[in-house]
Amino acid sequence: MRASTLGRAVLVAGVAAALAGTVVANPAPASASGGLERFHHQRVDWKPCDHKALDEAGAQCADVRVPLNYAEPRGRTITVAISRLKATDPGQRRGIMLSNPGGPGGPGLDLMLGVRQAMTPEVTARYDLIGMDPRGIGRSAPIDCGWPVGTMLRSAGVDRPAFDRAAKFAAGLARQCAETEGADLRHISTRNTARDMDVVRGALGESKISYFGWSYGTYLGAVYTEMFPKRSDRIVLDSAVDPRRYARQMLRDLGEPNEAALDDWAQWAAARDGEYHLGKTAKEVRALTEGLVQKAARKPIRLGEYQVDQHVLPVLLFVPLADARRDADVASTVRQLADAADGKPVQPSPALEADLRFVYKPDATTQNSGQAAVICGDQAMPRDPESYWRDIRRSRAEEPLFGAFAHNILPCAFWGPPAERPTEVHNPVPALIVQATGDTRTPYASGVGLHQVMTGSKLVTLQDVRVHAVFGNYPNTCAQNAVNTYFRDGTLPATDTTCRAD
């Protein structure tokens, strides 16, 4: 999931049946000698980005043409948008560094503007930093299902009737996506994005790519190394997804670390009861917070023009809990919800207003149906609602607030079958994996899992820090030194390394 935003997030059984005849079970992608030559050798026309920050930074942008369906390279095409911050010293230039911010569904055109702030001059001298909106996202043939909400991620609620409503809602989102986007959805996938990256490589005249990815971007990067190992140069995967647990299990893994983060935050808030008045002990703070979900189940909590129900309230906590530096935002959100639940008129703070607006009032630039297209298009999920309900019931004791969120049924349960089998990642391509032990979105064990299957990798652990996305987001001298050293001269740490907060 993307580090800086809500993990922004389909096809019903009838549509799945309709598409089944047109979906290729495991199409063989065309090779450069089998129809991709015109894409790898296309002319790239650089131009201003029409993006204030990128243009002010001197970046250039271009559209790179790729096949919609790599099994039919002479068929319909789309374009993917890329940006370039040129290497500052042509004499030291090594090549290009592609990137992805996560999500899936995060637009990445401007990602490297922020990430390069953590890079040393020796690194920025060596690489053209390439931002990219993946297919189906941002400026790259965006998927827009016209949903009434910004994300498919919601909680199932407190009881069976609430779960049944959640399942009906998920099926409705899937149906709407199918009706709006049709068969194009089956071509929005991680494997196709990896192929797009390789077309970008070829179009820019490079033999290899280096790469930096956050969150889901680590899965994309790992898939690229599996599909194109000889074209992979220096790879950094920050806040990693275990590819063996990608999709359904990855989401189920969210429950435990978010409950732990809630406990950690509750202790923080209890120590500041004089300011927030949420409870004098962590137990009292947690009881108040869990009680708000029960209140929202009985009657949605009114915050300004918004009605926060039991399905959305956990999402509003999930967003800021990913970073301990936002503990005050969590406390403010809970205080506002508690006041509103007591009948007080509350106008949401700017931070809370932004999250509410994303959930309830998405626009063309913030809606995240592209996330569903990628996740649901990558891997099939169980179709029986009862399997989700059983998982939710089993999770309630250990995950009272986030179990129903992590185990909820998604539109993927009503989606058409994926066009290809999931990628099995297991290779010796060298890579540097960076992982915080307190990560709530890609738990620490997930980074360890990627390290195990990428046998040439080294793992940098950021110990006892609750944050998602480290390099370029959370200043840490030890982790930054490891990443910069690797990008500068290709030297991985001799052994796995543990870093602590500065």
From TrEMBL:
Keywords: Hydrolase, Signal
Residue ranges annotated for the AB hydrolase-1 domain, each copy included: 101-270
Peptidase S33 tripeptidyl aminopeptidase-like C-terminal domain: residues covered: 401-499
Xref: Pfam families: Abhydrolase_1 (PF00561), Abhydrolase_4 (PF08386)
The name this protein goes by in its record: Pimeloyl-ACP methyl ester carboxylesterase
Residues making up the signal peptide according to the UniProt record: 1-25
UniProt keyword annotation of Iron-sulfur present: no
InterPro entries tied to this protein: AB_hydrolase_1 (IPR000073), AB_hydrolase_fold (IPR029058), Pept_S33_TAP-like_C (IPR013595), Serine_prot/Carboxylest_S33 (IPR051601)
Keyword Signal annotated: yes
Superkingdom classification of source: Bacteria
Similarity comment text for this entry: Belongs to the peptidase S33 family.
